[in-house]
Design goal:
With about 375 residues, this protein is of the alpha/beta class. Helices cover about 45% and strands about 15% of the residues. The chain is built from 13 helices and 15 strands. The longest helix has 21 residues. It starts with a helix and ends in a 5-residue tail after the last helix. The relative contact order is 0.13. The protein binds UDP-4-deoxy-4-formamido-beta-L-arabinopyranose (WQD).
Length: about 375
Amino acid sequence: MNFIDLCISSSTQKLKFIQFVLPLKRMDKQRYILVTGGAGYIGSHTVVELTRAGYTPVIADDFRNANRIVVDGLEKLIESTPIIHEVDVCDANHMRDLFEKYAFTGIIHFAAYKAVGESVMDPLKYYHNNIQGLVNVIELALEFSVHNFVFSSSCTVYGEPEGLKVVNEDSPKSKPNSPYGHTKAIGEQILMDVFKSDPEMKIMNLRYFNPVGAHPTGLIGEFPIGKPNNLLPFVTQTGIGKQAELTVFGNDYPTVDGTCVRDYIHVVDLAKAHVKAIHFLSEQADGLIEAVNIGTGNGTSILEVINLFEKIANQSLNWKFGPRRPGDVIEIYADASKANRLLNWQAEYSISDAIEHAWNWEKMIKNYE
Ligand code: WQD
């Protein structure tokens, strides 16, 4: 006679036991990961990869920088209904409700504004949201003893690399070139101070280079609200006719062709790096704090992006040169060897794959306003 039979005799009671207890047991097995900004561009791709890796992502997003079309794509990709709570990370009380509801085993904090150019024009929007949001989430992580914390940081913390175009995590950092970059540098400083005060925390600052592309299935991708700030979505929107013409900001930089050079990292590769980071932190017995570059290690100029797009889309792009954009770094790309060594991660997609997937996504959402 097994344990269940021992506890209860009638089949009805047995059914109740199974219906009530086993799910709770299953819930105990859930590895809930709080994903703030999880309905956004990088967040949504990370939700897919977390689910595929057996985690249960809980999205906290107020959709200020996300389009609800993402929910349909997520449902198809994860083959279930994503757990989504519409909440502003700056609303500490509402965020606390989530920590009371779920036993989070980790946190990935994406929720932040991220456009370099826009941050120069509207700095306080960036300081309020990016700093207050982080402080709220890390305070709750400490209160509820959620020790595994991945922070969405950025290569903009390096500022303008002195001479060095390829940077590693220990490269000298000059002052960030934009308020956006300052919010990420301040965020890393906050986390360092938190770690010093609570060495049980296990913190990983993922310094993204330039996230680009879309999911290869065409089910989710970047959905800029209004006019895109970033290069590739502006290129694809110009290609599809949503924008009349791309302006290339500056052609007199000391680079291969006079235009700025960046390390464009496919968003799916970037999402996978987050899963590797959460897994790495959960495996560590002791507290730690680490910064890790997430990039391809290759630099691509704006003109090279345009030429690749024209080849992939088999059409010419309408573009012109314009003045430099304040806040732009001239040339920067990643030494990603630490990500490979620590997380066993490296980029698998190329810039051409990213442009192809971004263009495919642009065509998928052509009629969606
Ligand atoms: C790239 C280049 C522009 C638009 C991004 C993210 C930021 C961070 C770092 C993650 C620049 C030029 C752009 C246009 C152009 N990533 N450009 N015409 O500024 O490197 O920052 O990567 O945290 O979140 O924003 O990316 O795509 O805005 O610009 O010429 O219409 O393309 O001047 O040289 P950036 P970007």
